[in-house]
Amino acid sequence: MAQRDPAANDLSIGTAERPDDPRLDAPARVFVSWYDRGERVGSLGSLEPWLSLEQAVARYAVHAGLDPRIPAARASRWHRLVGEISVLGEAQDLPVTGLDAIAQVLVPNRDGVTLAAGPRQQVVSLPSAWRSSPRPRDFLVNLMRTAGLSPEHDGPRLRGRTFLAETFVEPVAGLTHSPTLAPELELQVGAA
After folding, report:
1. CATH 3.30.1490.150 region(s) of the chain?
2. Is 72 helix (H, G, I), strand (E, B) or coil?
3. pTM for the complete prediction?
């Protein structure tokens, strides 16, 4: 488990007024990710809308920074961190099964994907992951390997779902005001 860095208490995070937006109080599917120079240093969220948007972002922002799968971000990296909040739409079942068929219907840089090879073998990828693997089949194979799935063995029985994600990006050093929508990552649109 990641250890809390005592120097983190000395980090200035700024302040921001809470916007008067009813979406903050509505249940939302949310993932929060942290990046250091493009390298993911934490990511956590939920495919189910069990917390309000405001509660989900607050909870997952802290817990993603302590993601036990990835070494904890240290205070020395704080100024380089970039936070990414993805608000997910409802997932839609794909009408096809199997690795190759799913790869043919995905749209790069648009679709968030949930893959399942069995009742307990599920893996999720946000649309932002297309940055590191822009070809659909390669994207799926990388995702499967991350989950310990074999493209050869599990590929033929693979089932998929896609979802939309509205993504907001803000450097930690810039959090002295309300986060703004990054123009280059405005709206990731997924297959319906």
Report:
1. 92-162
2. coil
3. 0.76
